[in-house]
Amino acid sequence: MARIEQAWLRHPDRFPRKILGLEELRVFNARSLRDRSRGVRYLATRFAAKEAFSKAVGLGMRSPMWWTRMQTLNAPGGRPVVVLAEPLASWYAERFGVAHVSLTDESEYGAAYVVVESRGNPDISVSSLLD
């Protein structure tokens, strides 16, 4: 949390816009206006989710993956869901099935776990995904 808060303090407008998609940015702004610590927790968990997703699909932060192209939003019941923008959405759809995301935050840490389903092709192995 401290590392994300420091980045936000150094670049109060630029840092959230670089990391968050448009829908995430709206939620972040509303939460951080009510309570700064809620804003920090939101920003930290979304940052963690983007890192976890980029690693799960084997891209890291290189094209077509980019911070704002992957959002973690809440379904009507509150469950976090992955929402992708182009060109990442098309790239992802060709290779994978549903992406599941879980977020948690504590006083010092924000964490995210992402599990990506295969498209049901038994010929896909971890080594072939890395090629």
From TrEMBL:
Per UniProt, the keywords (alphabetical) are: Transferase
Citing just one GO molecular function, the answer is: holo-[acyl-carrier-protein] synthase activity
- Any Pfam family: ACPS
Q: Which GO terms describe its biological process?
A: fatty acid biosynthetic process
Q: Which residues form the 4'-phosphopantetheinyl transferase domain?
A: 3-94
Domain of life the protein comes from: Bacteria
The keyword Transferase is annotated on this UniProt entry: yes
Q: Which InterPro entries match?
A: 4-PPantetheinyl_Trfase_dom (IPR008278), 4-PPantetheinyl_Trfase_dom_sf (IPR037143), ACPS (IPR002582)
Q: What's the protein called, per UniProt?
A: Holo-ACP synthase
